[in-house]
UniProtKB/TrEMBL annotation:
It is an enzyme of class 2 (transferase). Transmembrane segments: none annotated. It comes from Propioniciclava tarda. This is Dihydrolipoamide acetyltransferase component of pyruvate dehydrogenase complex. The lineage of its organism: Bacteria, Bacillati, Actinomycetota, Actinomycetes, Propionibacteriales. SUPFAM superfamilies: CoA-dependent acyltransferases, Peripheral subunit-binding domain of 2-oxo acid dehydrogenase complex, Single hybrid motif. Residues 178-215 form the Peripheral subunit-binding (PSBD) domain. CDD domains: lipoyl_domain (cd06849). Keywords: Acyltransferase, Lipoyl, Transferase. Residues 131-176 are annotated as: Disordered.
Amino acid sequence: MKTVLLPDPGEGLVEAEIVHWLVKPGDVVAVNDAIVEIETAKSLVELPAPHAGTVVALLVDEGQIVPVGSAIMTVDEGQDAGTPTVSGPVVGEVEGSGAVLVGYGTSAAAVSRRPRKGAVVADERHELVNESYATDAPVSRPVDEVSSPAPLSAGAVPPPLPEPGEPASGASGFNGVRAKPQVRRLARDLEVDLSTVTGTGPDGTITAADVARAASVSGGNGPQPGRVTRTPLRGVRREMVNAMINSVKAPQASLWADVDVTETVRLIEALKKRREFDGLRISPILVLARAVCLAMNRSPEVNGSIDLDRGEIVVPDDVNLGVAAATARGLVVPNIKAANQLSLVALAQALNGIVTAAREGRITPADCRGGTFTITNVGVFGIEGGTPILVPGESAVLCLGAINKRPWVVSGPDGDQLEIRSVATLTLTIDHRVLDGEAGARFLNDVATVLREPGLALLF
């Protein structure tokens, strides 16, 4: 009998929510079959079965938040094993077979095993996979004996575990349904039976568009007029709620400026034609990110934070630039480490990377830790401006509004003239314990200067 323990879902987290069981007691599972969807503060992932056998009991209800290391399921392998099993937390490499076991994060009990070259036979490879999951804790509760399938043959090596956020067993969930966790959640919300949906994605994978189309065709069983929908605070949404509660503890002040960004728009169009930027999405947020890093040279205190326990203001040398990203599951703020040390091309690559990861639900807790300054772009929603709220632990956040054509007074050799220019609103929110109005105004003016005349970036 094996007891499956909840592994560390990634980067030192201490708890996760059991979102949806993909198996039930009596089901027969193979190694790496998806058994459960869990949600952490930043991601929704599936856990694979570490051993083949028959599911005896599910020890945690859906919607329950449990600490890492908690028993979540028991499996009968038809052996007198009697030791708990952690589902997918370790990384091990089996040489000769090409199979790589990839877990979802670090664990205090996790041990990376690498066999000596040429010293592993089939039986040892199978033993290595099983040993890497075993712990010394006793089975958490007794269960009735049930029949189990035959164990893996001596020469069999389980297939590799999935990448975080990707479905196990070739994107297949239990019962052969091919869909990612986010798509399954959408299907549950819309009350769509995935077994009735034809997937249009790679290898028949069901996409979000497939689910939405099925819901519209069937008419769905969604909320009726007069009903009240209650949605539990989970994962990213719960984390955002906690962050906003902590944010209001800081005395916040905001400054804003309307900026003629016509030259920035022209620069963006020129960069798109450069070979160095082939395949990269070039947008105003790239120039804004660069302008922020340059302005930090003259206002390093904007990159600081307050340590109340020690009574200090802490200013790091590196700018870990957070970029707010709206996802289907809520707002996440991954950051680019040491963005001030990157070239414009490298900065564009980093921005494209985190935007893609956020869109695909691959942002990890490590991506969101250690930020020192954040930028957000409400202009993508057609909004001209907004008052951003501080990310806890940071002292400033900058918001870029939509770039619109406006009549603008332009000074020239013949005096002032009225022209149609591209104009955007910048809004800076500061922690008034760390920054006063003068420091915030100087920084905002420097950022505006670079956006107004990108050539002046040479002065910073």
